[in-house]
Amino acid sequence: MNCKNCHTELQAQDDYCKSCGGKVIRNRLSPKNLFAHFSETFLNYDNKFLKTFISLWTKPEIVVRSYISGTRKKYVNVISYFAIAVTLSGIQMFLLQKFFPDAFDVSAISQKGTEAFNKGIFDFVQEYQSIAMMLNVPFYALISWLVFIKEKKYRYNYTEHLVIFMYILAQMSILNVFLILIGASFGLSIGVLSMVFGPIQIIYSGYCLKRIFDLDWSNFILRTLIFFGVLIVLAVIFTAIFSVFAIKSGMFDEMIKAKRAAIEAQKIIKDSIN
């Protein structure tokens, strides 16, 4: 008998291939063994996904340092974990569109006259959420690299900071999926839930960085202030770039038209009352 993955010759008693590590499959697919495989992969407490998910809450520094140092068997590797998060986000969007369409209402977080503009931005982000999520990784990794570039104990390069924030943002995305679906079932919109989720992401990111870089509280506070300082500078730069794009694409024109329409509507209502 040969391994179905790499064709290495196997012994009769082998459960795993000694060459590629693939599990030896002897039985044909059936509902019973398919469910058993699903349970072993996703529902078993000892499976890699649950271990990774739980450990990123309790000891994120172990998960990150293990991957960076080359120990990658115990936890889900960062690429796969990020891919799982993106997939779950896609499933979340399908469920919201199918069962909770009111969750996309942005009126609760919009000023009068800006609803159409905010809705346009919101729809754009939701439509390209996987791309937006991937773009966030190099952005936050760049800030983190600049903040910790002089760190002596754990001096990670930019690629290693990418690993850090892929794990952090994937973990937050997975949490976000469940929070939004639960909130939507109670009639809460994504706009309202994002106001709750934002602070959670900030706190969790700070918690992870504190543990990963083994910072004391004074150093942590200093690094946090530097982090937000760099974030503001980069945010201004990217906002300026986006503003140029919005002007050229006509998004600002739509906002102006919507605001004028709102003013006209308010004027008509006042006149009818008077």
Low-confidence stretches: none
* Structural class based on helices, strands and sheet pairing: mainly alpha
Please state the overall shape, judged from the principal axes of the Cα atoms.
globular
Total number of β-strand segments?
0
The tally of domains stands at 1
What radius of gyration results from the CA coordinates? 24 Å
Average predicted local confidence, pLDDT? 78
N→C terminal distance: 90 Å
Helix and strand pattern: HHHHHHHHHH
Provide the helix percentage: over 70%
Percent of residues in beta strands: under 5%
Number of helices: 10
Task: Detail the topology: elements first, then pairings.
Layout: H1 31-43, H2 48-58, H3 60-69, H4 78-99, H5 115-127, H6 129-147, H7 158-185, H8 190-212, H9 217-249, H10 251-273
Structure report:
This protein is an all-alpha fold. The protein has one domain (76-273). It is 71% helix and 0% strand. It is built from ten helices and no strands. It has helices at 31-43, 48-58, 60-69, 78-99, 115-127, 129-147, 158-185, 190-212, 217-249, 251-273. Helix 6 (129-147) crosses helix 9. The protein is globular, with a radius of gyration of 24 Å. The chain starts with 30 loop residues before the first helix and ends with a helix. The mean pLDDT is 78.
